[in-house]
Task: structure prediction
Amino acid sequence: MRMHLAPTLLVLREEINTQLPHQVRWYQRMRGLIDDGVVGRLTWTQMGVQVTY
Result:
């Protein structure tokens, strides 16, 4: 079973890695942030995550 899932998981992981920067920028635009694709303090705050660094 693992042999059948491994290629699917690799494709899924590649798709996530490819789409993530676009999705982050979309979220930032929707929240009125600068859409730089970096999940920094302001992006985390907009997502409701307390940043303590």
Notes: The chain has one domain: 2-46. The longest helix spans residues 2-30. Helices lie at 2-30, 41-46.
